[in-house]
Write a structure and sequence with these properties.
Elements: E1 2-10, H1 16-36, E2 38-47, H2 56-67, E3 72-76, H3 79-82, H4 86-98, E4 101-105, H5 108-127
Parallel strand pairs: 1-2, 1-3, 3-4
């Protein structure tokens, strides 16, 4: 059976709106797992900036993977929930793969759109 860790990133403000957004992400991820026969190993809720991976919860997750290598997936709703920094996201994606974890956005079409927008924004910023 497939196994996955669910990754939910939220803003650090802990507002009621943000708590509902986190709950919505978890419901979507669990539903995806149920439909696709994926067992949930753990749920990781990470607060803070999406452009950086230097966050306590993320560092702890990586340390656990380094100490106890596991196989499976890291599922998140969209790539922008994983990181809005494309370069950092691709580096972290490779780090996870090297540790036996395959990161995946469950809303792939939305993620592709987000990725295209991100690349377009970066291209525009470089031209300025």
């Amino acid at each position: 059976m497939n196994v996955a860790d669910l990754y939910i990133r939220s803003k650090a403000d802990h507002s009621e709106e943000e708590l509902l957004a986190c709950r919505k992400q978890e419901i979507q991820l669990r539903q995806y797992c149920r439909i696709n026969g994926i067992a949930v190993r753990r749920v990781i809720v990470d607060n803070g900036q999406s452009g950086k991976f230097d966050r306590p919860v993320w560092r702890e997750y990586l340390q656990e993977l380094q100490l106890t290598p596991l196989q499976g997936k890291l599922l998140f709703v969209n790539w922008d929930r994983f990181s809005r920094n494309f370069g950092a996201a691709m580096q972290m994606k490779q780090t996870l793969i090297d540790l036996g974890i395959v990161p995946e956005a469950i809303n792939e079409s939305e993620s592709r759109k987000s990725l295209k927008e991100f690349l377009a924004d970066n291209d525009l910023a470089k031209r300025r």
